[in-house]
Design goal:
Blueprint: H1 15-66, H2 75-78
Bound molecules: zinc ion.
């Protein structure tokens, strides 16, 4: 007589129960994915805004130490590791470099 494993039907899940669980997970995933994608754009804009604040703060510090604002393309402040030890950040939204208005010290553009 061949060995046949016995199935104890008191334990385990029926096919219907598994289908219901998979359907619930599918509905949850369908609800969550658009929300996560939307938050990605929002967080990138928030990161750009935070970068602008950090740059403007360091530009003020540069002006206090050097007596004038750094170059509009921030090349001289970028080459000084005392101000941006990890390098000058780039915009997380469009990947462009930041520039400043040399009369106000404020970041130009990046109104997204
Ligand atoms: Zn930006």
């Amino acid at each position: 007589m061949p060995y046949l494993p016995t199935v104890d039907r008191r334990f385990g899940f029926s096919l219907t129960e598994l289908i219901v669980v998979v359907a619930i997970l599918g509905v949850l995933a369908a609800l969550m994915v658009p929300r996560l994608i939307g938050h990605s754009d929002t967080s990138k804009r928030a990161a750009c805004y935070a970068n602008q604040g950090e740059i403007e703060l360091q530009v003020k510090l540069w002006r206090r130490n050097q007596g004038s604002y750094p170059a509009a393309n921030l090349s001289n402040i970028d080459s000084n590791p005392a101000y941006f030890p990890d390098g000058l950040p780039v915009c997380p939204v469009d990947g462009t470099a930041y520039t400043i208005d040399t009369s106000s010290g404020l970041v130009t553009g990046h109104t997204h």
